[in-house]
Amino acid sequence: MTQLIQTDTPLVGNRVNAGRAKRTYQATVVGTGAVAANINIEVSNNGTDFLLLGSISPAGTTRATDGFTSDAPWAFARANVTSISGTEATVTVVTEA
Question: CA–CA separation, 37 vs 13, rounded Å?
Answer without folding.
Answer: 15
